[in-house]
Design a protein that fits this description.
It is a single chain. This protein is mainly alpha-helical. It has one domain. It has 4 helices and no strands. It starts with a helix and ends with a helix.
Amino acid sequence: MEQTILVWALIGVALILANLPWVSDLLFFVFQPPGGNKGAWLRLLEWFVYFLITGGLALGAENRAIGDIHEQDWEFYTVGLALFAVFAAPGFIWRYQFRPLLQRHRGWQ
């Protein structure tokens, strides 16, 4: 039961962290970006750092649940990165498709 809760909590944290760069205009929710505008490359860099943080949390959860960390090859991390990209889809769509559409048609901020 504890492992199941740990896995679902990790998935929830991954979903939140994958979408943070596109939801906030602040860098890591704390710093004002240089020039006052957080561009696409800075968002991708922030997203990748969140991926690394999620991986660290996953390693810690694996160590806590099993007591050992299994070795993985590059394929595992590639699939993890792809899954993290899929998790980021709602925030990306919000930032680059839905939000500009609302601003254009409703004068929404």
